[in-house]
Design goal:
Helix content is about 40%, strand content about 15%. The protein is of the alpha/beta class. The chain folds into 3 domains: about 70 residues, Arc Repressor Mutant, subunit A; about 110 residues, Aspartate Aminotransferase, domain 1 (Alpha-Beta Complex), CATH 3.90.1150.10; about 220 residues, Aspartate Aminotransferase, domain 2 (3-Layer(aba) Sandwich), CATH 3.40.640. The protein has a 7-stranded mixed beta sheet with strand order 4-12-11-10-9-5-6, with helices on both faces. Strands 13-16-15 form a 3-stranded antiparallel beta sheet, covered by helices on one side. The chain has a two-stranded antiparallel sheet with strand order 1-2. The protein is globular. The two termini are about 40 Å apart.
Length: about 475
């Protein structure tokens, strides 16, 4: 049994939630490893000066986040080294999906994709795949498929070349092979202080150290980024400048140029996640456009076409294609040429553009519903984003609100899983508006949230 004792002094919120957060941070920092047995409930309660019930609830919350597992008669053990609360958002439960309305996962709406795929399937019968696609392909991808991805990337305004494109299995995989090509264990990777939990999983896999950089309503602060670079140990910046996850901010072009110039000054590689960029009608030039010699642009078809295609792509800097394709070969050998062929046909015949237009219309319609239902409460979102960031009014705390919403059949994600290191966690929620099946279901769920927000300001009873 480990003698680990968390320091809860710098963690805000309920004590039980602070214990769960401290467990996640200790796993990310390497203080706790997979298989470690946590202190007994009574022992830890004595050390922390809290009740045994608080420790029990904290361990239960850590187990809910996928960090630990309790074994009857043996104790509570660290389940994995996935960094922070990354597994809470990273493992999708298909065996027991949550009942009610789920705003916790950033899925795109089903929309018209099934009908369009059926149309494509019927066309395949008269125009079958080239037999060469049924065999092994180059690690970077079939040349025709890379050309199609290159065409898609070119719509961002980036200067592209097919020889710099590496296909992968979605943005998450693109992040992994890029980090594998760039980093060694122990390297420091900078991120926004609130970031997509998938980078925590990648960092844990490759034993990288994440360090959060302060943000405001326009994204990462250039001064804070330069201060982090001046420490001299950072190698890579991972960022989401367009429809940032979780806050939905879009970084203005002037700041993008400033961030790029700082990265150039200190020799920092940029890994830019632009999986949501297609939703922006007047999309700004990616940061990669300001620093092409040091930037890896990563995106995929998962949000704009269909998640099950699992086709992503990395646009590498000149001369850096081989290290990324080598990582692809080592991890996966190749991206499926069958799904890449569907992507290619959709790009060539206009289906991809049709899907993008549909998503842009739908995302705006859903945001209009949110603006109407939540009109009395301040929240952050940008037209085109499928998610919004909701700061909670006093006296609500994020974990408490999440639990109250769950009781009412609405599932949301509090801010803690997005925080990097010991960043002060705001009392806020990410609400994903794309996962609900219909706009009516979206409105119903948001109405429940609005009612709960009112309950935080006036005395009210729980309604079961």
């Amino acid at each position: 049994m480990t003698i680990w004792t968390p320091d809860l002094n710098e963690i805000t919120g309920p004590k039980y939630a602070a214990i769960a957060q401290a467990i996640g941070e200790a796993i990310a920092d390497g203080q706790l490893s997979a298989g470690d047995r946590l202190p007994a409930h009574r022992d830890l309660s004595y050390r922390l000066g809290v009740t045994v019930g608080t420790v029990t609830r904290g361990y239960a919350e850590a187990e809910r986040r996928g960090l630990v597992v309790g074994e009857v008669g043996r104790g509570t053990f660290v389940k994995s080294a996935n960094g922070g609360s990354a597994t809470q958002l990273f493992a999708i439960r298909h065996d027991q999906p949550p009942a009610g309305i789920d705003f916790s996962l950033n899925f795109p709406p089903e929309g018209i994709r099934a009908d369009l795929f059926a149309r494509t399937a019927s066309r395949i019968a008269s125009n079958p795949f080239d037999p060469s696609l049924f065999g092994y392909q180059p690690a970077a991808g079939n040349p025709r498929h890379r050309a199609a991805a290159n065409e898609l990337i070119s719509h961002t305004g980036l200067e592209t070349h097919v020889d710099r494109v590496v296909l992968c299995n979605g943005t998450q995989h693109g992040m992994a092979i890029t980090m594998a090509a760039l980093c060694q264990p122990g390297d420091v990777v900078l991120t926004e202080e609130l970031t997509y939990p998938g980078i925590k999983a990648v960092a844990a896999m490759f034993h990288l150290r994440l360090r959060g950089v302060a943000m405001d309503h326009e994204g990462m602060l250039p001064d804070a980024f330069e201060a982090a670079c001046q420490k001299g140990d950072a190698k890579v910046l991972y960022c989401i400048p367009t429809f940032h996850n979780p806050t939905s901010t879009v970084m203005p072009e002037s700041r993008r140029a400033e961030i790029a110039e700082i990265a150039r000054k200190y020799g920092i590689f940029i890994v830019e996640d632009d999986v949501y960029g297609f939703l922006e009608d007047d999309r700004p030039l990616p940061i990669s456009g300001y620093l092409p010699e040091q930037s890896f642009y990563v995106s995929s078809t998962s949000k704009c076409m269909m998640p099950s295609l699992r086709v992503g792509f990395v646009l590498t800097p000149p001369g850096m294609t081989e290290p990324v394709s080598s990582a692809e070969r080592a991890m996966n050998w190749m991206t499926s040429p069958i799904t890449a062929e569907i992507m290619t046909r959709w790009i060539e015949d206009g289906t991809a553009a049709e899907l993008v237009r549909w998503h842009r219309r739908e995302s705006r319609a859903r945001l209009e519903i949110a603006e109407r239902v939540l009109k009395d409460f301040a929240f952050d979102s940008t037209p085109g984003s499928y998610h919004l960031w909701l700061p909670l009014p006093p006296p609500w705390q994020a974990e408490e609100f999440t639990e109250k919403a769950r009781v009412r059949g609405v599932h949301v994600i509090p801010s803690a899983p997005f925080a990097v290191g010991r960043t002060a966690v705001p009392h806020a929620l990410r609400i994903c508006m794309g996962a609900t099946r219909t706009r009516e279901e979206l409105e119903h769920g948001l109405t429940i949230i609005a009612d709960l927000l009112v309950c935080g300001q006036t005395p009210c009873l729980d309604v079961m």
